[in-house]
Write a structure and sequence with these properties.
Blueprint lengths: L1 H27 L17 H8 L5 E7 L8 H19 L5 E6 L6 H8 L5 E2 L6 E2 L1 E7 L4 E4 L10 H12 L6 E6 L7 E2 L4 E2 L4 H9 L1 E4 L13 E5 L6 H12 L3 E5 L15 H6 L9 H5 L1 E3 L3 E5 L3 E4 L8 E10 L15 E5 L4 E3 L5 E8 L4 E5 L9 H7 L8 E11 L10 E9 L11 E6 L2 E6 L3 H13 L2 H4 L12 H38 L10 H74 L1
Parallel strand pairs: 1-2, 7-10, 7-11, 11-12, 12-22
Antiparallel strand pairs: 1-5, 3-4, 5-6, 8-9, 13-18, 14-20, 15-16, 16-17, 19-21, 21-22, 23-24
């Protein structure tokens, strides 16, 4: 009886202990989790955590996802779950200041009307008029709205950045402001010969549409307060007080986007009436003495010629196009695919671009964004004056096998170029520098088309996207800029893919053999047909019938071989799947069982040893 009550008391104590632990877990470990994924998919970067901790007013993110319409799109559904999980993690780390809403915009519902009102993209599913939504709408208490019209699975590496950027913009009290100092006529200019003004450049139109722009003259001595980004285009002949102001702005944490050039083809010179004077005018620009003090080397007397990425140009009407080593189109292969500025660009066109490098002892870190190909070299900018044949440049160019840095992100601690002018002696700077200004000119990346009185833009390169991406990225504070691309959550079956590729190669070889034999048979049939002397060509000869019968039998045999190869492929994949299932279904339980048996046997032995010692 005493033994029974002892067992019952033990069970009661265990139950109370379980309840106590459950309550303790609820109160002390709420939100605690361990990320055991290979690429730390659910671990937010320090920059995102800092942004979430700095939210002052509540921000609401509404995820619009068509649950029913996505039934037949497992990849989209999996990515939507990934977005939800990341949003939940961000909400858990925001201290309650980030609110997540889930909205299912069913057809003909109020939620669908709201999705259309916010400009979310409705993707046709191919089933009648049914559409699929996967977009995000962010709002704050001040009527601020930020929209991601469609969250593409292809953008998953930048998902955390885009979400963090949306939160950052909604938590700001005022609209971002961009300062612009330009030595090129971005806004257009009056032509004294015609009395008419030229159109403003497309890139300037886009910047004004997207940002609050403050234009600063090169003769000014100060820059406005409250700038988030300062854009410098072809900074020639800047006043010293303005250079000092730029130095102070950068060392105080301001962001810079700088376009310099050893030979600005778009700088038409000082005198529009004198073409020769325009050619002779110096067209280079640097940011000295700032670059020198900060440890950035940029030579204005040489440009990069690139045979590997040279673009074709037409020098005169009626002439065949030729490749110009000084006018290059940087392709995806020579862009940083991990940086949000260049990740999705296709091509960026530049003309007579310079290059950057760090001086010895520089405190900056340089992250290249655009590179030349290894088939590039340096040429004197004097060669561009009165150049008649680009083939001359190609003949002179001696590729070094080195890729030159045409655009880069710089970050680190630097010294002031003007000690004692009110700027800190040292400071942490962050800037993006481009060794070319011509990429901003319309003729290198976009065409205007007049259609029924409306101007349509037809970009043929990604120059505009590059500039807007750079400004957009620099607007964020240091925390946002530090949010880098992440690994994707999908885990491809690499072994299965290898099996498929191997089988496809075998299939391709067999199919090519079939096609070759078919062509040979048709050739022989044609020869037999031509050698026949009778006029009735619609009746097959015995030789033709025999040839056709041989081919039909051979084709049947080859088709059987194709089916056998496909069956072997399926069998290999099924065998692999069976092995994976065996590991997951059988091996793991067997492993746990074996471990339990080992522990049980050890305990039995320890108990036996204890009884032996007790009896002795």
């Amino acid at each position: 009886m005493l033994k029974h009550w002892t067992s019952l008391s033990a069970l009661v104590l265990l139950a109370l202990l379980f309840l106590a632990l459950a309550m303790l877990n609820q109160n002390l470990f709420t939100g605690a989790r361990v990320d055991l994924t290979e690429n730390r998919l659910y671990t937010l970067s320090p920059g995102t955590l800092s942004l979430l901790g700095s939210i002052e007013e509540p921000v609401t993110l509404s995820l619009y996802f068509s649950e029913e319409s996505s039934r037949e799109f497992p990849q989209v559904r999996a990515f939507a779950r990934r977005v939800e999980e990341l949003l939940e993690e961000m909400a858990n780390r925001s201290g309650g200041r980030l609110v997540i809403e889930r909205v299912d915009p069913r057809p003909f519902s109020d939620q669908e009307d709201r999705a259309a009102l916010f400009g979310l993209e409705a993707i046709p599913t191919g089933r009648g008029e049914e559409t699929l939504y996967l977009g995000l709408v962010g709002t704050n208490l001040l009527d601020g709205v930020e929209v991601l019209p469609f969250l593409s699975p292809a953008r998953e590496p930048f998902l955390e950045y885009e979400l963090a950027r949306m939160v950052h913009l909604l938590s700001r009290p005022v609209q971002p402001r961009v300062g612009l100092i330009s030595g090129l006529p971005l806004q257009g200019q009056a032509d004294p010969r015609t009395g008419q003004g030229t159109e403003q450049w497309v890139i300037h139109e886009q910047i004004e549409q997207l940002f609050d722009v403050a234009t600063i003259s090169r003769r000014d001595e100060t820059i406005p307060d409250g700038l988030d980004v300062l854009v410098l285009v072809h900074p020639r002949d800047l006043s010293e007080p303005l250079l000092q102001a730029i130095d102070r702005f950068a060392l105080d944490g301001g962001r810079l986007l700088v376009f310099v050039d050893p030979q600005a083809e778009s700088d038409t010179g000082r005198d529009p009436f004198d073409a020769m004077a325009a050619v002779a005018t110096e067209r280079d620009s640097t940011l000295e003495p700032l670059f020198g003090a900060w440890g950035i080397e940029f030579l204005s007397d040489e440009f990069v010629g690139d045979l590997g990425q040279a673009l074709q140009v037409t020098l005169q009407a009626g002439m065949a196009p030729v490749r110009h080593p000084g006018i290059i189109g940087v392709t995806r292969q020579y862009m940083d695919r991990s940086d949000v500025v260049t990740a999705e660009l296709d091509a960026v066109n530049l003309a007579s671009s310079g290059h950057f490098r760090l001086s010895e002892g520089s405190g900056l870190a340089m992250q290249p964004l655009l590179l030349s190909s290894p088939r590039s070299g340096r040429l004197d900018t004097e060669r561009l004056r009165f150049l008649e044949d680009p083939n001359d440049l190609a003949a002179e160019l001696a590729p070094t096998g080195e890729s030159f840095v045409l655009a880069a992100r710089f970050q680190g601690s630097v010294s002031s170029a003007f000690p004692g002018n009110g700027a800190p002696e040292q400071g942490e700077v962050h800037l993006i520098a481009v060794a070319d200004t011509d990429l901003l000119a319309d003729r290198y990346w976009v065409q205007r088309q007049r259609v029924f009185g409306t101007t349509l833009l037809d970009p043929f390169a990604s120059n505009g996207d590059f500039v807007i991406n750079a400004i957009d990225n620099l607007i964020g504070n240091a925390d946002l800029i530090s949010v880098r691309s992440r690994a994707i959550s999908s885990r491809p079956f690499t072994l299965v893919d290898a099996l498929r590729r191997e089988a496809e190669q075998r299939l391709l070889a067999t199919e090519q053999r079939l096609e070759a034999e078919l062509a040979e048979t048709e050739r022989r049939l044609g020869e037999i047909q031509q050698t026949r002397a009778d006029a009735d060509l619609t009746i097959l000869s015995d030789e033709q019938e025999a040839e056709i019968d041989r081919f039909m039998a051979q084709r049947l045999e080859i088709r059987q071989q194709l089916r056998q190869v496909r069956r072997e492929l399926d069998q290999d994949i099924e065998a692999l799947g069976a092995r994976v299932k065996a590991v997951n279904i059988a091996a793991m339980p067997l492993l746990v069982t074996a471990l339990a048996l080992i522990i049980w046997i050890r305990r039995r032995r320890q108990a036996a040893q204890w009884r032996e010692r007790a009896s002795s």
